[in-house]
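Annual report, structural modelling task.

Input specification for the manganese (III) ion complex:
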Amino acid sequence: MWAMAYTVPDLPYPYEALEPHISAQTMRFHHDKHHQAYVDKANAALDGTGLEDAPPREVLTRLSEFPPDKRDAVRNNVGGHLNHSLFWESMTPDSTGTPAKDGKLMGAIRDTFRGLPGLKETIKDAAMSQFGSGWAWLVHDGYRILIVTTGEQDSPITDGLEPLLGIDVWEHAYYLDYENRRAEYVDAWLQVVDWAVVEQRFGEAPVPDVSGLLERLVSVCGTEHRFGEVTLDEARAHSADLKALAGWGPMAKIGAIARGWSDLALQMQKHKVNTVAELDPGIVEHAARALWIILPGRSMVEPQG
Ligand code: MN3
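The model returned the following structure:
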């Protein structure tokens, strides 16, 4: 039996709370019928797999472990359950219209989209470009925020991306209110986004563990340093040294690595820190990849000897 069978969570507000943007009728069908169907089919698909009790996000990162005849049903219905659970919480009748102006999320929005209008325009373009049923998402990849789309009920979690905000662009989400006018629905939906929830998810998004990386020895201006202890001035000076060498034919990679050090110095300057260890882990990992301290991909290069 399903000790921990999935259930549809209650809406955090009344059905009619999001009117006039989204009608009570749409919310009733969407929440009570569509989400319930994903939950029922997810519970049936997981029955007998040994993962009946696993949380949806765990299931969605272990899809390859399911037999081929079960995998599609698990992906579609566990994905549908998780996506909709996030969706209800992403909306509120009391939308502030914006994240906190001086918060970390707004800083990340400025870095990637130049500002909130840029984010809204980009997620709307993504929502409009998703052919057929699917979702447009604001996600965190451990380093920065970006917009992606998924088809059907696929979840960004399967791709290692943390969903911060997702708009459902299946017709069942808007047809009763907007018929085929998806753009009007997207504009209306952006009026009811709960930015406090998005900020909370951003604050809790997983970041890479860079503790080992910060201890690695790197050569900076001819001296060995722990990567975490490299200072802003050292990163700048080392970048300048490497740029002076970059013209040498056999040193093809050096120019790119010099740029990596100057980018790292810029990050330290921008975030007003004096050592690499004080930077956000996502920035540290990104820099380490640009500097070839870790190779492209996710694996760390083991220290020699
Ligand atoms: Mn839906």
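Strands lie at 134-140, 145-151, 162-168, 217-220, 223-226.
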